[in-house]
Design a protein that fits this description.
It is a single chain. By secondary structure, the protein is mostly beta strands. The chain folds into two domains: about 1-10 and about 40-315, Carbon-nitrogen hydrolase (Nitrilase/N-carbamoyl-D-aminoacid amidohydrolase, 4-Layer Sandwich), CATH 3.60.110; about 340-505, no CATH class. It is about 10% helix and about 35% strand. The chain is built from four helices and 26 strands. It has helices at about 50-75, 125-135, 225-235, 255-265, and strands at about 10, 15, 30-35, 80, 140-150, 165-175, 180-185, 205-210, 215, 240-245, 270-275, 285-290, 290-295, 305-315, 350-355, 360-365, 370-375, 380-385, 400-405, 415-420, 445-450, 455-460, 465, 470-475, 480-485, 490-500. The chain has a seven-stranded mixed sheet, with helices on one face. α1 runs parallel beside α2. The longest helix is centred in the first third of the chain and has 24 residues, at about 50-75. The structure holds 2-acetamido-2-deoxy-beta-D-glucopyranose (4 copies). One 2-acetamido-2-deoxy-beta-D-glucopyranose binds near residues 348, 349 and 350.
Length: about 500
């Protein structure tokens, strides 16, 4: 006889934004800092620079890093994270980036402090400065730079050594507070980066700290993939460091929205540092734990400048953290959707298809006669129960959308998504387009039955503000329910973003 056990996991969130997180008794905390850097770019990245000119360019960014490291240290930071591409910039070719490359020794093999032993390796000026920065300010420093590694020219397909006999990697480096190089991670999931190679194997890189235990390293696009992100989590890593250069994409993949979603969905800490560049729509950085979010997202018209974010947060490493690091167990009622009544929602008639993030979502409009909607894409169904719509005087149109399939534009990955979005206009065809502002505050329960356990929840409201879903329930049969009420801002997107990693290669 097969006994089927359905596990129910309940989260109840206490949401505090910024520095006021004092409601939980935490035995063990530390201070994290991330810096959103307005990177000074090389205006002509396709023309190769001499080493000295490349160093002169990077020095301008390093000078800003140095100032920010001092400010972070003044606020007691134990660790400071800088963004992807923050020293060299972007849009290089494989050859034009040559002046920016350093050969970064493997910290597993070399015990090297570039600040105190700078002459041990040639051509390592950037490593030396970052190391001295960590040492001078007595904090861990994480930065992203370009690494050159010689590889065996023997044409062994397994090593994928390029014909010029070396790899070029998009690389995160980590320095201990005395300057020792403690970790090196080569980005696995490149995003239109002609200057860089994909490492022959995904690298699962962690480092241990005395203040918070273990951290894992990922870079930008990596956050959407099984390797290395899920492998790190499966190995018990609960604190991820995420340098990124992320071009925002509403309604589902805005920076802070997805950073928050991953931290909640993975029940992990995420230290996210983005680049600031208005032309490329890059902004949005933060320090996220399952209970707190301290973040910055520039608004249209804000001066284009850097931003340091510092927050005291709980240690989440299970090897270090004290019992019950703050997550409170809540009651099992979740709004107006009692678990068993959820199965029989009325079929919704007037569905339509509209493109959202280049994927054909099936949508149904929210209207005043119906507070309980279901929409399906094939056998994948999403249900929304809502109150408080439409609001008097408001002319905003909302829709519930479902999509199950493989996203194929600018990257290929399988998803199952349930999303409530504000449509850009008053036509159904505008549902799924980008909107930044909204006035409608809903009380809702959003639910889907997912073919994956990796579901990332988020609530984004007007003006790039995050709200913490009040209540989340996950059952063993794949059903995920998010309940939210008392909204402070108008709803832009409420989303359950499921990643179906096992279908990525089909
Ligand atoms: C630089 O790269 C970004 C995407 O990474 C692209 O949108 C932009 O057009 C590129 N700029 C140039 C000058 O090639
Ligand atoms: C560094 O470069 C100099 C000059 O090219 C060379 O003499 C020296 O051997 C090199 N040192 C190392 C450690 O490679
Ligand atoms: C999240 O992690 C905490 C420990 O940090 C644990 O007590 C809690 O049960 C986890 N929540 C979920 C939903 O897994
Ligand atoms: C509201 O939506 C339901 C289900 O989609 C539909 O049958 C009904 O006609 C809609 N009512 C109005 C007033 O648009």
């Amino acid at each position: 006889m097969l006994l089927h056990v359905t596990l129910t996991v309940v989260w109840t969130f206490t949401f505090t934004q910024g520095f006021g997180h004092t409601s939980n008794i935490l035995d063990s905390t530390y201070i994290a800092a991330v810096y959103e850097h307005r990177v000074i770019l090389n205006p002509d990245p396709l023309t190769p620079l001499s080493r000295s000119n490349a160093l002169r360019h990077m020095q301008r960014n390093l000078d800003i890093y140095e100032e920010q490291a001092a400010l972070a240290a003044q606020q007691g930071a134990h660790i400071l994270v800088f963004p992807e591409d923050g020293l060299h910039g972007f849009n290089f070719s494989r050859s034009s980036i040559s002046g920016y490359l350093e050969t970064i020794p493997d910290p597993e093999e070399e015990h090297w402090n570039p600040c105190t032993e700078h002459s041990r390796f040639n051509n390592t000026e950037v490593l030396r400065q970052l190391s001295c920065m960590a040492r001078r300010h007595n904090l861990y420093v994480v930065a992203n730079m370009a690494d050159l590694q010689p590889c065996p020219l023997m044409p062994d397909p397994a090593t994928s050594c390029p014909s010029d006999g070396h790899w070029q990697f998009n690389t995160n480096v980590v320095f201990r507070s005395d300057g020792l190089l403690v970790a090196r991670y080569h980005k696995h999931n490149l995003y239109f980066e002609g200057a860089f190679d994909t490492p022959p194997q995904p690298e699962i890189v962690t480092f241990d700290t005395p203040f918070a235990g273990r951290f894992g390293l990922i870079t930008c696009f990596d956050i959407l993939f099984h390797e290395p992100t899920i492998t790190l989590l499966e190995r018990g890593v609960r604190q991820l460091i995420f340098p990124t250069a992320w071009m925002n994409q509403l309604p589902l993949l805005d920076t802070i929205q997805f950073q928050r979603a991953v931290s909640l969905g993975a029940n992990a800490t995420l230290l996210a540092a983005n680049v600031r560049n208005d032309r490329l729509i890059m902004t949005g950085s933060g320090i996220y734990t399952p209970l707190t979010a301290s973040y910055h997202h520039a608004q249209r018209g804000d001066p284009e400048e850097g931003r340091l974010i510092v927050a005291r947060i709980p240690v989440l490493d299970p090897g270090v953290a004290a019992e019950g690091s703050g997550v409170k167990r809540g009651a099992t009622d979740f709004g107006f959707c009692q678990q068993d009544s959820c199965a029989s929602s009325p079929p919704s008639s007037s569905t339509f298809t509209s493109s959202m993030m280049h994927d054909p979502f099936t949508f149904v409009l929210l209207n005043d006669t119906n507070g309980d909607l279901e929409v399906c894409d094939g056998s994948f169904c999403c249900r929304l129960q809502f109150q408080g719509f439409p609001q008097r005087g408001s002319k905003e149109l909302y829709a519930l959308g479902a999509f199950a399939g493989t996203h194929t534009v600018n990257g290929r990955y399988a998803v199952q998504v349930c999303a409530v979005v504000r449509c850009a206009g008053l036509e159904a065809s505008s549902c799924g387009q980008e909107v930044e502002e909204a006035a409608t505050k809903l009380t809702f329960t959003l639910e889907g039955r997912f073919g994956t356990k990796y579901v990332y929840p988020s609530v984004l409201v007007s003006g790039y503000i995050l709200e913490q879903p009040e209540h989340m329930v996950k059952t063993g049969d794949g059903k995920v329910t998010m309940m939210h009420s008392n909204m402070a801002g108008g709803l832009v997107t409420a989303c359950l973003y499921g990643r179906v990693y096992h279908l990525d290669n089909q």
